[in-house]
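Students often ask why we bother encoding 3D structure as a string. The short answer is that it lets us treat folding as translation between two languages. Here is a chain of 274 residues written in the first language.
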Amino acid sequence: MPTFSDPTKDAAEASEALRGLAHATIRIDQPAQMYPVLGDLLSGVRSLRQVLDQLASAHVSGQPRAFDDDGDAAAGAKDALAAADELHQAATLIDAAHDRLEAAMNAAGRIAWHPEPGTAGRWVGVVFLDGEEADRVLDLIQRDGTTAGIEHLKQWDYGDETTDAALANGYVYDTPPVGNLDRTTTEGDYTLIYNPFLSHVSLLRVYDAPPDPALDEPAPAPAIAAGGMGGGPGRVAPSTDAAATTRRAPAVAGKDWFAAMPRPVQNAGRGLGR
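And here it is in the second language, the structure alphabet:
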């Protein structure tokens, strides 16, 4: 966790986080994840620009305390000013990188990612939480990671019972419905979608059974409330494969995607502690 007061510890944590991101992006199986990653990187670049300017200013203001190893104040002051100048130039180069990254993000936001050919599947909604309930899970994810979040939400997956309920109520999706600012991660058959900005989390599970031809007719998608999952930058495009068309409940005017997701049943020992 950042200290917001100790530059040495925060710099070390930032370095470790970037190392982790470098490993995490070696392979990206869900292209829609790239848009929120670019957004976080853009925010990081802006902060890096500020850090470089502040370090440069600190070298200038600290010039009277600068000496070389032999105690020469003139040499120390010269090196302090040289460091400040190089840091300012580095900040200027960061400005150019920021503009290119922002342009890349804008282009990425116009992409509708289609499923990889031959891998189209279906996902059933397991559970959706928002507000205070979601905040507890988001705290768990921040503290212990997404695996812990998935394991926690899996307690609402009752296997065939959950699948049957999803099929009956139309909580079935060709692709995980990922919206702007949503973050996703997939482990095994489960996909976690979470948004720390809008305070909601949901868990979906892969459903491999073929659709019922008698019911497999496309219907209009429900209206998406502002800030909800679905269309928007970095969105996932619906499948164009007729055999993989999502079976949905009839659309209701103004219906929020979140309202369609199954919510936890208040059952002792199964819910979040209060």
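Translate back mentally: Residues 221-260, 265-274 have pLDDT under 50 and may be disordered. Keep this in mind for the problem set.
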